[in-house]
Amino acid sequence: MIIKNIPLTHLKSHPLNNKIYQGNMNIDDLADNISKVGLLEPLVVIPSGTRNSYYVVSGNRRLLALNSLGFKKIDVNKIDIDKKGYSLGMSVNGYDTNSNYTKAVIKEFNRISKG
After folding, report:
1. For labelling, which of 7, 43, 56, 105 has a CA lying 20 to 30 Å from the CA of 1?
2. Gap between the Cα atoms of 114 and 93, Å rounded
């Protein structure tokens, strides 16, 4: 479901994002590209558990780039999350959803989601 004009202040990087990227998220080229051609693919988000707040499960680098460019609002693609939905987010980002690492990340996500 596409949600229009979500303030970037309502979007947060998913808590597992740092585990996945380990802090290595160079955005300079991406920000330059977005400034030239715009955002071509909406971020994929899930509800964070707080009203009107979402976790980004696909597009965390784009979120950083958009913030650096001064964007205030964007359209996002909201999905209902479960184990399959989180696998989808990882798959979109190029992760092998059958690997032991990905399975461990999904298990951790499920643990966090319940707490």
Report:
1. 105
2. 24
Nearest to 2 by CA among 37, 50, 42: 42
How is 24-88 classified by DSSP, letter by letter?
----HHHHHHHHHH---SPEEEEE-SSTT-EEEEE-HHHHHHHHHTT--EEEEEE---SHHHHHH
C-alpha 4/C-alpha 23 separation (Å) is 29
Per-residue pLDDT tens digits for 2-61: 889 999 999 998 877 766 666 667 889 999 999 999 999 999 898 888 888 998 988 888
β-sheet bridge partners, residue 44 = 58, 77
CA 34 to chain centre: 16
Question: What are the chain's domains?
Answer: 2-114 (3.90.1530.30)
The number of residues in the chain equals 115
Which burial class, exposed, middle or buried, applies to 1 when counting CB atoms under 10 A from its CB (0-12, 13-18, 19+)? exposed
